[in-house]
UniProtKB/TrEMBL annotation:
<dbReference type="GO" id="GO:0005886">
    <property type="term" value="C:plasma membrane"/>
</dbReference>
<dbReference type="InterPro" id="IPR003661">
    <property type="entry name" value="HisK_dim/P_dom"/>
</dbReference>
<dbReference type="Pfam" id="PF00672">
    <property type="entry name" value="HAMP"/>
</dbReference>
<keyword id="KW-0472">Membrane</keyword>
<protein>
    <recommendedName>
        <fullName>histidine kinase</fullName>
        <ecNumber>2.7.13.3</ecNumber>
    </recommendedName>
</protein>
<dbReference type="InterPro" id="IPR003660">
    <property type="entry name" value="HAMP_dom"/>
</dbReference>
<dbReference type="Pfam" id="PF02518">
    <property type="entry name" value="HATPase_c"/>
</dbReference>
<feature type="transmembrane region" description="Helical">
    <location>
        <begin position="156"/>
        <end position="180"/>
    </location>
</feature>
<dbReference type="Pfam" id="PF00512">
    <property type="entry name" value="HisKA"/>
</dbReference>
<dbReference type="InterPro" id="IPR004358">
    <property type="entry name" value="Sig_transdc_His_kin-like_C"/>
</dbReference>
<dbReference type="InterPro" id="IPR005467">
    <property type="entry name" value="His_kinase_dom"/>
</dbReference>
<keyword id="KW-0812">Transmembrane</keyword>
<dbReference type="InterPro" id="IPR003594">
    <property type="entry name" value="HATPase_dom"/>
</dbReference>
<dbReference type="InterPro" id="IPR036097">
    <property type="entry name" value="HisK_dim/P_sf"/>
</dbReference>
<keyword id="KW-0418">Kinase</keyword>
<feature type="transmembrane region" description="Helical">
    <location>
        <begin position="7"/>
        <end position="29"/>
    </location>
</feature>
<dbReference type="InterPro" id="IPR036890">
    <property type="entry name" value="HATPase_C_sf"/>
</dbReference>
Length: 459
């Protein structure tokens, strides 16, 4: 069942139930009122009958009879009974007509007035004082008015109930459709969005309600999907290009070497060139594999206590192997005196790969000028600082430096694949850290890697 139908059904059931209960109480209270009204009529007639039967001193009986006959409507099957209160053997004597129970007469004498009902015939009795004792006056009649009145009331209530139910169901359908109309619009717009037009967005409107929040949530999801699709497309196209370049060079060198007989030095030079291109290819594939497989939950990685000073020394050794003759220097001036501050939790190999990528870029894009590698630590943070004096990063390129395969606009003359920084960013984020970049064109770049510290004694 659709939500609009559920809303209409629930709204209709609740409202119709309320109207039904209100109609029931109206009918019940009106019925009760009709009893009291008819008993009141009988009471008036009982007092007039008593006054006519036992007129006060100085009054005329005919006057009471005249008033009763001329000004009071004759009730259906009206009967009057007047009899004195008598006792026999200490017990009240009950007259045969109208055949009422003894308790009725006892209540009349005790309370001064009492009512009784037998089917549609109603009785009202009063105790009336007279000379020498008391008399009981009973007036009865058939309440035909009640039946007619209640039948008419039932008919009116039933008609009103049917009309109200129809109006309520119609209103429920209208309001459920009106309330869910933005949802239908969102559904229609989302159905028109596919992988070929992910740039389209859902209209949020000018409201600030839940529907606007839902539309904004869809748009945020579409932003992420569009980014993921673009990243995937860029990944495939750039990976194909980057992998194809060294493969083409290797194949070309092999074909050239086999095209004719050569001396040992020529073969050695060709093999050396192919080995160099193979190393590049291996570096690209390893980086791509890390970039594709790394997650942010760290469940697939081995976590351990890592000393950040030892991490810096390992990075220096790695850079020395990859780029002999580099001018990377470790700055000890900011090292904390307390060794326990230089501790973080993470994966040593991944962190070494991440920091090495930063230092490698610093050496490469500064044309092997001096590069400073420093470490500062507090009770809550470890900060690794890499500073170079290279070409810098243009400000317009800063928002994209962590996008896979993106390269700054001033790096044409340098070899690279646009993989290092995205991989580094993924590793640092996985370690709940952040990377801060401050760069100026032709002056250099300073990159700060901030990682959360950990107390060794607490682990």
């Amino acid at each position: 069942m659709k939500i609009s139908n559920k809303i209409m059904l629930l709204f209709s059931v609740i409202t119709v139930s309320i109207i039904f209960l209100m109609s029931f109480f109206v009918y019940y209270l009106t019925n009760r009122y009709s009893f009291g009204d008819f008993y009141k009529r009988l009471e008036i007639r009982a007092y007039l009958t008593a006054s006519a039967a036992f007129p006060p001193v100085g009054t005329d009986t005919l006057a009471y009879n005249y008033i009763r006959d001329q000004h009071l409507e004759k009730l259906p099957a009206e009967e009057e009974f007047v009899f004195p209160v008598q006792y026999a053997a200490g017990r009240l004597v009950v007259p045969k007509p109208p055949g009422l129970p003894l308790s009725f007469y006892e209540d009349v004498l005790q309370k001064g007035q009492e009512t009784f009902r037998r089917g549609e015939r109603f009785y009202t009795g009063i105790a009336y004082p007279r000379e020498g004792g008391k008399s009981i006056v009973v007036v009865s009649a058939v309440n035909e008015y009640r039946g007619l009145y209640m039948a008419e009331l039932r008919r009116i209530l039933f008609i009103c109930f049917i009309i109200a139910a129809a109006v309520i169901i119609g209103a429920g359908l209208f309001f459920s459709h009106y309330i869910l109309q933005p949802v239908h619009q969102i559904m229609h717009q989302v159905k028109n969005i596919s992988s070929s037009n992910l740039h389209l967005r859902v209209s949020t409107g000018a409201g600030q309600d839940e529907m606007a929040e839902l539309a904004a949530t869809f748009n945020n999801m579409l932003d992420r999907l569009e980014t993921a699709f673009e990243t995937q497309n860029n990944f495939v196209s750039n990976a194909s290009h980057e992998l194809g370049t060294p493969l083409t060079a290797i194949i070309g060198e092999g074909e050239l070497a086999l095209s004719r007989e050569r001396d040992a030095a020529s073969y050695r030079a060709s093999i050396s060139s192919m080995l160099h291109q193979a190393e590049h290819l291996s570096h690209i594939t390893r980086s791509l594999l890390h970039l594709a497989q790394l997650g942010f939950n760290g469940k697939k990685q081995h976590w351990e206590m890592v000393r950040t000073d030892e991490l810096l020394f390992a990075v220096k050794q790695s850079i020395d192997r990859i780029m002999p003759g580099n001018k990377v220097e470790i700055d000890h001036s900011l090292f904390p005196e307390e060794e326990e501050k230089m501790c973080i939790t993470g994966n040593f190999q991944l962190l070494e790969l991440a920091i090495s990528n930063i230092v490698n870029n610093a050496v490469k894009y500064s044309s092997n000028q001096p590069v400073s590698l420093a470490l500062a630590a507090t009770d809550t943070k470890n900060i690794i600082i890499v500073k170079d004096h290279g070409i810098g990063i243009p400000q317009r390129d800063m928002p994209y430096i962590f996008s896979p395969f993106f390269r700054a606009s001033n790096t044409e003359r340098f070899e690279g694949y646009g993989i290092g920084l995205p991989l580094t960013n993924t590793v640092i984020r996985m370690h709940k850290g952040e990377i801060l970049v401050d760069s100026r064109m032709n002056e250099g770049t300073e990159i700060r890697v901030v990682l959360p510290s950990v107390n060794p004694s607490a682990v």
